Input
Amino acid sequence: MFKGLEHTAIASPDPAKLAQWYVDHLGFAINFTYAGNYFVKAANGTMLEIIPSEGTPAPQNMKDPGIRHLAIQVDDFDGAHAELKKLGVKFLTEPYNNQGNRLVFFTDGDGNILHLIHRAKPLP
Output
């Protein structure tokens, strides 16, 4: 009956600009738009819906309650990290290892928290 997450929504003051950030920086594709909303799709089929925001954005801290980050799976961690550095992405941490996995935290064009992850062994 329940199949899993179809997409996650992010509210943005400029949805078109943020959607393009995901295209330009992470290789997503804009696959559907309507009424100022943009769906962007990653190579593995996962999607984000970027919707128009209302109000003032709250500060983004890595351990505040609620959804805290989006994990971007990569098969070449060092290459992906170097590419994002070349594109001027703001990093919140240096790359590090955790339980055999490579990680680094960074922000998207609106300041939302993401991280690259390369797992030595896929989760069960």
